[in-house]
Design goal:
With 413 residues, the protein is an alpha+beta fold. It has 13 helices and twelve strands. Helix content is 39%, strand content 20%. A hairpin with a 3-residue loop joins strand 4 (74-80) and strand 5. Pfam families: Peptidase_M16_C.
Length: 413
């Protein structure tokens, strides 16, 4: 469903998107702030600030914030991803103005003085899955914050209030952030209220943005890691892909679903049903500010890593050379159409999806238009996408295993 929407940028750099939802009893607000971990030594500060943001200000303590939220009929939550901090609010429509006032207070006048004085937890070594993912990204795309391990030495002492205030001034800023408001209220009024209550918020632009990968296409090859004591074998790949705004993305999406994105996929039938090699099989298109890649992820019993990689390479080769059957392409199309409808099933889910698009600079009506694009993809176009993107010689296949890798060359993590 395409909804009317407007986009404006305030004087402080905050991008505001108002999406009309006539008659909606709730207003949905999504504030997306760039929040990538660009410096490993700041990990503890980043995590603690995300946990404390929204719990108090210099004018309201935790109880006052909770009471005001309840009075407005609002629910507030904060989620941190690899590159963003997402602050979500669902509120009764009549509480929209009060919610914007509360947000402005929390963002402009944070309170971090009453921190517990506990030392930071000791750093834990990365598990097999995390170590494998970092190795894949480093090999495929070169040095990058996403591939960088945490700081070898812990930060000196616990995180202090001054640390949080300094990080807030640098990270929680309007310039570079996006606020999406989905509401039945008149857009001009909403924009006026946002400017009134969030216009005084200042700072930026944020430096916590992911830089692009050094390579647009992953370096192919074979990587085998040994992780003594691991209780499963892992396969992770990185293959070429195009971003969601590319005209060829819809065909690649269907090719990815045929490969490993649904229960009847080629990888599932081969690795789980035919050979019982893996109990978890998936393929996905990964996309963020750093880049885009096609990923296969599988988990199986210890000692099966080499076989997992060989079978996955065979599936890639078969699809690249012969393409999917018309029936497979049609099943993938139906699955993609159903998933798109599911993503828009509730206004809360719709608002979160649209905020993600807006934060990437994509029009908020991209998803409904994409559903139409998927419906128009031909079998020949899916076959061409398989031929271009699924060739194993273009893919990095990486494994981690705790058992003896036999003839495989590896390195200990």
């Amino acid at each position: 469903m395409k909804r009317p929407w407007v986009r404006r940028t305030l004087g402080n750099g905050l991008q505001v998107v108002v999406v009309e939802a006539p008659g909606a009893p709730l207003a949905e607000l999504r504030l997306v702030v760039p929040y990538a971990l660009t410096e490993p030594r700041e990990a503890a500060t980043r995590e603690l600030l995300a946990a404390r943001l929204g719990t108090g200000s210099t004018t309201r303590d935790r109880r006052a914030v909770a009471d005001r939220t309840a009075d407005l009929g609002a629910e507030l939550s904060t989620v941190v991803t690899v590159e963003q901090l997402l602050l979500s609010v669902s509120v009764l429509s009549e509480g929209l103005e009060g919610t914007l006032e509360l947000l402005g207070d929390l963002l402009s006048r944070p309170a971090y003085r009453d921190l517990p004085t506990s030392p930071p937890p000791p750093a834990r070594p990365a598990g097999p899955r995390t170590a494998l993912r970092r190795a894949v990204l480093a090999h495929a795309f070169g040095l990058h914050p996403l591939a960088r391990p945490p700081a070898a030495e812990p930060a000196p002492g616990p995180v202090t209030p001054d640390d949080l205030y300094a990080f807030h001034r640098r990270a929680v800023v309007p310039a570079g952030s996006v606020l999406l408001v989905m509401t039945g209220a008149e857009p001009a009024r909403v924009l006026r209220l946002v400017a009134e209550h969030l216009g005084p918020w200042s700072g930026g632009p944020s430096g916590l943005t992911l830089p692009p990968f050094g390579r647009t296409a992953p370096a192919p090859g074979r990587l085998a890691l040994r992780h003594p004591g691991a209780d499963q074998a892992l396969l992770l790949t990185a293959g070429p892909a195009v971003p969601s705004t590319d005209p060829g993305h819809a065909a690649l999406h269907l090719a990815q679903l045929v490969l490993g994105g649904q229960a009847s996929s080629r990888l599932t039938r081969r690795l789980r049903e035919r050979h019982a090699l893996a109990y978890a099989v998936s393929a996905a298109l990964r996309e963020n500010a750093a880049g885009t890649w096609l990923e296969i992820e599988c988990a199986g019993a210890p000692g099966t890593a080499g076989r997992l990689a060989a079978e996955a390479a065979d599936v890639l080769r078969e699809l690249a050379e012969d393409g999917p059957t018309p029936q497979e392409a049609e099943r993938a199309r139906r699955y993609a159409a159903g998933f798109t409808r599911f993503a828009l099933a509730t206004r809360a889910e719709e608002a979160s999806a649209l905020a993600g698009f807006a934060a990437r600079g994509v029009d908020v009506d991209w998803l409904p238009a994409y559903a139409e694009a998927v419906g128009g993809v031909t079998h020949a176009e899916v076959t061409a996408a398989c031929r271009e993107f699924l060739r194993p010689e273009k893919t990095l296949l990486a494994t981690a295993d705790g058992a003896d890798a036999g003839a495989e060359e590896g390195r200990t993590q």
